[in-house]
Amino acid sequence: MTQTLQIYLDECQRIMTHADEPLSPKMRPLGEADWPAVLQSPCLPRGALIALKRSNTPMQRPPVGVIGPREATQQQLEIAYALGAGLAELGIPLLCGGRGGVMEAASKGAALQGGEVIGLLPDTSAEAANPWVTLPIASGLGEARNVLIARASVVLIAVGGSLGTHTEVAFGRHFNKPVLTFPDAPNAEGTTPICSIEEALNLTAAHLWGVTQPS
User: Fold this and answer.
1) Partner residues linked to 156 by β-bridges
2) Helix, strand, coil tally for the chain in percent (to 5)
3) Pairing mode, strands 15-18 and 21-22
């Protein structure tokens, strides 16, 4: 990601900008709060998220979805854990299916970094959530809850694949959501292949700020 992607707060207009053009961030200050002055210094999207978190500005933040199988490999679990931790460090809420495997690993990584973990469960009881979910939602919808995960996530990141993951990827693209896929995850038209946690976090940060074509 190059320096040309630096974003900053226009002090006069009080809006976030990139190359003197207004951005449309997917998040916003809560209530009557305003963007913090620290964002007046140009920085890359990921750095801007870190600065925003450190400012303790109350924010309305949409979640990023991490999707993947319950029967996951050790490598997939390690990627999911690191991904969850990285999202939490950026102050990004994590949304997942709330059960085991990739979902639990991502939840644990985020929770141990003090992040918010939303588990949208297929079950009718919140007790079915893995022990790292901070906000369990018992949808009672069964696997149909996959549609809600795809719809509610501002970005979807797929680690590994199962039939359920295939449906979430497909619905994500159907809803025109950015879908980032690690090498062993399902692909669909319009998904963005990624190879590292760094790449996933950089692209996610760019999407959150409304910078849609990072390079």
Assistant:
1) 65, 179
2) 40, 20, 45
3) antiparallel
